[in-house]
Each structure stands twice: as C-alpha cells, then as structure tokens.
Amino acid sequence: MATIGMTLTQFLLEEQRCVPHSKGSFTSLFTDLVVAAKIISREVNKAGLIDILGAAGFDNVQGEEVQKLDILANDTIVKTMEQGGHLAAMASEEVEDIIPINKRYPRGKYLLLFDPLDGSSNIDVNISVGTIFSILKCDTDHEATVEDFLQAGVSQVCAGYVLYGSSTMFVYSTGHGTHGFTLDPSVGEFLLSHENIKIPDDGQIYSANEANAEEWYPGTQKYVKGLKDRSRAYKGRYVGSLVSDFHRNLLRGGIFLYPADRKTPAGKLRLLYEANPLSMLVEQAGGAASTGTERIMEITPTSLHQRTSLVIGSKNDVEEAESMWTDAEGK
C-alpha cells in the first residue's frame, strides 16, 4: 500500500506486483527515464551558472527557435534511454524523423515520445519548464517505423511530465490514477507527495493566450467572454509554459485552452508529444481533454508532428467549452 514519502522506485515495484506475469521490463525502462529527469533537473537548476542559456542559433522541425537547453535535454534523454534495451525507437518534438536505437544496443518492445523541454524559452527568466513524455507498445518484430508511432492516445501505456520549478515534480499515470512525486535533493530520490490526484469537476481558473483573441473563432471568443462575467469569479492565469499551466490547473481545477483559430486552423500544440500524454493524465484524474469537438485520446494520428487544438482541464469546464463549438461557425 502506498504511503506519502514512498520512493518512486518502491511505488513502481508495488504497481508491478499487481500485473500478472510482469517481467519488470517496463519498470526498468521507467527507472532509466527517472535518471534522465534527475540529470535535466540538475542542469536546469544551474542554468545561470553555465553557458546553457539562450538560443542555439537554429530552428527545429516545428519552425521554432531552438534553445541550448532543448539540445541538452534532448541529448540527455536519448543517451540515457537507448542503452537500456527496453525501447524499439524514440521520437522527439525537436527531431524531424524517429530516433532509432543504436544497433550495438538491444532493442525492446516500447516506444518513447517526448517533448524534451517544454517552455524552454522561459528558462532565461527563471520560469518553470518541463519534460513531457508518452510510452507506447511496439509488438512487431521489424525495425520500428513512423507508422508504429501513429497510435491513438487510448493506446498509451504510460504518460507523464517532469516539472522543473521551485521543486522538481514527476507526475505520471499507467492507467491506474495520476500520481505525483517530488524530488528530495538531499537523498536524490523522487518521493510520493500527491497520490491519486483528482482534479475538481469545476474550476475557477482559465489559461489562454489572449494575445490571439482577434484570431479566435466565435465559439472561443464567446466562451472566454462568458468566463469574465463578474458573477462567475473566474481568474485568468497564463504562464506560457504548457506544463506549468497544466500542473496548476490539475491540482486546483480550471481549464487550459490553445484552440484552433484563423491563423492556425489545425491547432498549434503537438498531438503526440503534448496533447496525448496530458490528456491521459487529466482523464485519469477525473478531468477531460478535447479539441473542442472531439476527444483528444480518440484521434488517430496521421503524421509524427501532427498539430491539434487543445481544451483540457476540469470536466465540467471542458464540457461547457465544447458546447460553444457546436455550431458550424464556432468550430
């Protein structure tokens, strides 16, 4: 039975015992991921003391300016994870194609997708950033291809994120609730601090980039305007780092919106690296995630870097937002 203060390793072993015939491969994979998170946390916490701040001088596959810390986080995850023998391949938001496992290492039955450092441009001003990840099964014997990664969110074996803030938190789900662990730097271990997180059904926080309001479709404009009604007591809170905004709303209740609009009709956020893993976490916590018209977790991807709109958070808030998208012009 889990107790507050239990180490993440102990918690994983408890979960493993509940799975008949488990060989411990997933637990070992997850342990490697925890090591990568600790390394990135260390580097983020000393970012101002070494030359890893600022832009790297080129754009990634998304057309976004790459930060030095993006490269560090991406390389750390790849190097830490490829040697364990548990992965068939990886995919990163920062890399155009899939990342094969070096042939000198054994190949496993899992696929790892990750956004190595969400919100990295904020690190220069000491705002929280994070790593988002998703794990899928790859049961085929052939070398992994892009098509193996194009699975709907409901197929995820595990999803989670690591938040690097005033403390470092590791939040994940394997389909049995959403659990949070806080890094104790004095012992170098993640300790259980938030067992079985439950997001309130109704929130009073909305998170949206209102600088885009002129480009929003009528449904979005109508919904956000309604939240500002004085009788509803909603508060606008927007950090601009997806992990930070999501984490706050997960614990306190609320809704995060990055909707499709006239400028980005397909949406802005990445389905496989951001929307799917966060949707699994919020649903396991009792919340909901939608494009505004469709459940995120049921979308079958057609490309590795597919974009989507995202409306995610407290169940009743998301359902109310969806109701604003029901007419044709609301989208």
Which keywords apply here?
single chain, 331 residues, alpha+beta, Fructose-1,6-Bisphosphatase, Chain A, domain 1, D-Maltodextrin-Binding Protein, domain 2, 2 domains, eight-stranded mixed beta sheet, five-stranded mixed beta sheet, 8 helices, 17 strands
Number of helices: 8
Strand content: 15-25%
What is the average per-residue confidence, as pLDDT, rounded to a whole number?
89
Major β-sheet annotation: 8 strands, mixed
Describe the structure.
This protein has 331 residues and is α+β, with helices and mostly antiparallel strands. It folds into two domains: 8-194, Fructose-1,6-Bisphosphatase, subunit A, domain 1 (Fructose-1,6-Bisphosphatase, Chain A, domain 1, 2-Layer Sandwich), CATH 3.30.540.10; 205-323, D-Maltodextrin-Binding Protein, domain 2. The chain has eight helices and 17 strands. It has helices at 8-17, 25-45, 68-81, 146-149, 218-227, 242-252, 271-284, 315-323; strands at 55-59, 65-67, 87-92, 99-100, 110-118, 129-137, 158-164, 168-173, 179-184, 189-194, 205-208, 235-236, 255-258, 269-270, 288-290, 307-308, 310-313. The strands form four sheets. It has an eight-stranded mixed beta sheet with strand order 4-3-5-6-7-8-9-10, with helices on both faces. A five-stranded mixed beta sheet has the order 12-11-13-17-15, with helices on both faces. It has a two-stranded antiparallel sheet with strand order 1-2. Strand 3 and strand 4 (99-100) form a beta hairpin. Helix 2 (25-45) runs antiparallel to helix 3.
